[in-house]
Amino acid sequence: MSIELEKMSEFFTARVNDYDEHMINNVEGCKEGYIKMSELLPEYTEKLLDLGCGTGLELEEIFKKYPNIQVTGIDLTKTMLDKLKEKYYDKDITLINASYFDCDLGFEKYDAAISFQTMHHFSNEDKLKLYKNICDSLKPNGVYIECDYMVINQEDEDFYFSEMKRFREEQNLNDNEFYHYDTPCTIDNQIKIFKNAGFKTAKDVWRVENTTIIVTQK
Q1: Dihedrals φ, ψ of 202, to 5°?
Q2: pTM for the whole thing?
Q3: Quick one: which of 9, 25, 33 has its CA closest to 98?
Q4: pLDDT tens digit string along 4-60?
């Protein structure tokens, strides 16, 4: 069986109108995960980096607790950012329409960083480089909270990555382009990547179905 892979930005652009409802009602753990992420955010957070912010679903609960927080959001899909802007027009948000792999995230700039259901599309090698940049962007003792689709067994991780490789080869896809396909990492491997990226601690703290939250500290 084969599926036609879509470029990442095109995939989300085509689904922007149904995205919020899909995430809240169809992806198990997300509705609860948005609330849990806001609870895990440190109370001292004044400057927040949101990677793959999409339409900003994860920000709704955060703004309830921290209405004056300064947010920098990065996303590849402009239509998603437009929707986010409409929702939170009165908030202190800087939006960047780009790949977070290509952005200069700065040095010791943020109290905390978050991502929600975005990192399971990329290779472990790409994530390692990104996590190093995230770690550098955090102030001393800053935290990065990742809520993502993760698996338990290595066999599952190996299967998804091998399928992604097969699809790319069959469809002659450019290695330098991002295509939408789920390649979840195991929780154990995810924690190893965080520690290899320079985080002092990394701990899985919450899980509903495959939706998992790991909290790391610089």
Answers
A1: -155, 125
A2: 0.97
A3: 9
A4: 999 999 999 999 999 999 999 999 999 999 999 999 999 999 999 999 999 999 999
